[in-house]
Each structure stands twice: as C-alpha cells, then as structure tokens.
Amino acid sequence: MKGQFPAKGGGGSSAGATPARRAIAVSGALLLTLLAGCATPPPAPAPAPAAPPEPVRPTGPTPEEIRQRAVQHFLQRAEYAQREGFITMPAGASAYDFYLQVQQLDPGNAQAAAGIQTLVMQLVEQARDALRQRAFGHANSLLNTADQIAPGNPLSKEVRSQSQREQRRAEQDIAQEGPGAQTVELPTGPLTARSEAMVQMLKNVAERIRAHELRVIIVARNDAEGRWVYSQLREAVPGYRVRGDIKLGNPPRLLLQKTQ
C-alpha cells in the first residue's frame, strides 16, 4: 500500500530516539563531567607556620667572665700591696684584704693561698729582725699578726719560743746588776741621729762614772749603737778606763752600778 513505510536513510531527530539511546547519551555526559573533575589540580597546601625568631644573645661578658676578671684584679692588687709592704694595713687596702677578696670569689684559689703564706713568712722574718735588736714588744706584735692570718703556723710558733727565751735571758741579765743599779734612759731620736745633745748627755754620764767609780751596762738596740755609746763615754774621760759591758735590748739605756 502506498505511503505505509518510513523512508530509509537520514538521521532521525531526538524525538525519534529510543530510550536506550537517550540513556547512553546521558551516561556519556556524566562520564565527561567526572573526567573533567578528576583533571582539576588539587588545592595548594597551607603555608607552614613561621619559625619563632632566635633569642638575641647578649653581647657583654658572661657572669663567669666577670668573676674571673675580678679574681685577676684582686690578685694584682694584692701582689702590688705586698711589694709595697702593706701586709695587713691599711685596713681594706692591704695585701691580706685583697687575698681574702680572691678567696671569697674563688674558694680554694691556689695563688691566694700561696700569697697569704708568703705574708706570714714576711711577718715572721720581721719578727726575727726585731729579736736581733731586742725589740721584744715589736717582735711579739708581728707574731700576733702572723697568728691572726694563719693560726698555728709552725714558723710563728718557733720564733715565739725564741722570743720568750731571749726575754727571760734579758731579764736575768738586768736583774744580775743588783737593786742598786741606776738607770739612765737614752732618748731614741737623738741617739739614732747621734746628735750633739746626745754626745753632751753621754759626756755628763761619763763624768759621773769617773767621779763615783761606777760600772756601766750599755743596753742598745744593736751592736753598732752600743759600740758608739761606749766610744763616747770613753772619749769624754780621757785617761780613765770606763768599765762596763754592752747588751742588746730596747729601749736603749745605761745601767750604772757602784763597783764592789
């Protein structure tokens, strides 16, 4: 029959598409969308937090460096004071005071310990010199200072024993002169200067010695001083033999005694 069959060839419109073809078209569109989404690059990572700034280090000396500088400062001052003879005086500025400062800053410091021991040795040596001049009071004062710095020091103990022996010997020597002895004090200033006033004083004593036939004991601070006093007595009375002896002691004086 005419006009009963559709024409062949030519693409049909979407209205003429079957349900199966429409489903395939939709699935393809979805697939393309998914593929496009997968191709999108991932988001950039968040920036890492900034590191905290390093603490600013101090540019000055450390406390330990300051302490070491102070130790060296006081050691130098102690050595200078020691060379100048300022062993324990003046207070607060002596060698001993500076060594104590070092020991407070650095307990057990070997230089400070050795320095203090040297101070003790100086004091003991000065005490020995005083003993040679029979200056017992001065010697004992020096030994007392040495004992304050280093209690029980064997050097100080040895010289103190020597001082005690010398004092007893000196007391016995004077006591042997008897109760009748007369004492003439010799002022240390004019005696040290060997002044004209001292020469005249000794001349007057020499005349007393000759007039009363006296014997004289010259107590002098050292041998040279004693010999000078004796020479003045002898020269003051030419032709007369001044009888006497010289003993070391302090203060200087003449002991006059009637001869038996």
Present the secondary structure layout.
Elements: H1 19-38, H2 63-83, H3 95-105, H4 110-132, H5 136-149, H6 154-175, E1 182-185, H7 188-193, H8 196-212, E2 214-220, H9 223-236, E3 244-248, E4 253-258
Parallel strand pairs: 2-3
Antiparallel strand pairs: 1-4, 2-4
Count of separate DSSP helical elements: 9
Q: What is the terminal separation in angstroms?
A: 202 Å
How would you state the average pLDDT, rounded? Answer: 81
Largest sheet: 4 strands, mixed
Please mark out the parts with pLDDT under 50 across 5 or more consecutive residues, or reply none. 1-15, 175-180
The largest sheet has its strands arranged as 1-4-2-3
Global geometry: rod-shaped
Structural class: alpha+beta
State the helicity in percent bands. Answer: 55-70%
In percent terms, what proportion of residues is strand?
5-15%
Radius of gyration: 56 Å
Please explain how this structure is put together:
The protein is of the alpha+beta class. It has helices at about 20-40, 65-85, 95-105, 110-130, 135-150, 155-175, 190-195, 195-210, 225-235, and strands at about 180-185, 215-220, 245-250, 255-260. β2, α9 (about 225-235) and β3 form a beta-alpha-beta unit. α3 runs antiparallel to α4 (about 110-130), α4 packs antiparallel against α5 and α5 (about 135-150) runs antiparallel to α6 (about 155-175). It is rod-shaped and about 175 Å long.
